[in-house]
Amino acid sequence: MSDYGHLIYQQRGPVTVITINRPERMNAIGPQTHRELIDAWDRFRADESALVGVLTGAGEQAFCAGGDLKAAFAGELVDAGPGRPADALIGNGHRPLPAESPAPAVDTSQPSPRKTAAKRPGKPPEPAPAPA
Fold first, then answer.
1. Percent of the chain with pLDDT over 90
2. How far is residue 18's CA from residue 74's CA, in Å, rounded to a whole number?
3. How many CB atoms lie within 10 A of CB 127?
4. C or N: which end of the chain has fewer Cβ atoms within 10 Å?
């Protein structure tokens, strides 16, 4: 997946900016947004030239309101993929490999050289006053 309906994926040199682009829903994460976020982070992890990942939200009201309750009440559920429960996508932000896989999906024994950050939309916070 490279064309996203709910995300904007931008490369700025070694920095990747992923923007949840649903300001009309306060960037709530429904099934489509969820699938696109998984794909975008997989794309980031696979790109050796991408050293920093920034997650942000479009609009001025919210970074992300959380789960899209309107979609949930309408019966739209997160699809984890064929034969996988939705909770297989939860935990450390990484999808686990199938049980028959000989190696873990992510080696967490070594710190990652990559950095990720989240940015709130709107104006930046005011600097703290200088001590007297």
1. 45
2. 27
3. 6
4. C
